[in-house]
Design a protein that fits this description.
It is built from six helices and five strands, in the order H-H-E-E-H-H-E-H-E-H-E. By secondary structure, it is of the alpha+beta class. Strands 1-2-5-3-4 form a five-stranded mixed sheet. A hairpin with a 2-residue loop joins strand 1 and strand 2.
């Protein structure tokens, strides 16, 4: 039997070694891709977002309940939870004289503003009136009156209570969003109000 010459097998062995090295590199690269897979990262991110959302919603609920208790102790102001925050209803008699946009009880509004200063998020102030048109005075209609009332409250909260103006906004709705029927004096009294929507988002 003839013996194979070792030099003839050398090119074959060299090719096999190169191929094995290539497979090893590809396998390593594949393992790295799988270990750093975006699917796994997405799962971790989704889990983190879910946990943060659950924790955040619990914090928001605690903030809502705490603010409602604090405001409720003041008397005269109705506070109730809404989606993402708390709504406060200040009756007209608590803030203004009839047909006027000048703040009547500044001490009460200042006390309220100090409690709202610690609240996170934004504060939207809404002015509302009943459906009876204004007879004379400084305002041509209930639209101007309701808007000026909300603007005056926003200016007061910023200047006297130190609330960041970037967190404040004002809107006037006149009689377009009544709480009760304008057919009775009681209903009209409920409709003349200032709403504050405190958002924790």
């Amino acid at each position: 039997m003839k013996n194979r010459h070792p030099q003839k097998e050398l090119p074959t062995r060299t090719w096999q070694m190169s191929f094995n090295d290539l497979l090893t590199v590809l396998l390593t690269f594949f393992i790295l891709l799988v270990s750093a897979s975006s699917i796994q990262i997405n799962k971790v991110q989704d889990l983190s977002v879910s946990a943060a959302g659950a924790f955040g919603s619990r914090v928001n609920e605690d903030q809502k309940n705490g603010l409602i208790r604090t405001i409720g102790a003041m008397g005269g102001i109705n506070a109730y939870p809404v989606s993402g925050g708390v709504s406060l209803i200040l009756p007209e008699a608590l803030v203004y004289r009839s047909g006027s946009a000048d703040i009547l009880h500044q001490d009460l509004l200042k006390q309220l503003g100090q409690k709202l200063k610690a609240a996170a998020g934004s504060i939207r102030v809404e002015g509302h009136t009943d459906s009876i048109p204004i007879a004379g005075g400084a305002f041509p209609s209930n639209w101007e009156l309701s808007t000026q009332r909300s603007v005056n409250v926003v200016k007061f909260l910023a200047a006297e209570c130190g609330i960041d103006p970037a967190k404040l906004s004002a809107a006037g709705y006149a009689d377009s969003k009544p709480m009760a029927s304008n057919e009775s004096p009681e209903g009209r009294s409920l409709n003349r109000r200032v709403n504050m929507i405190i958002s924790f988002k």
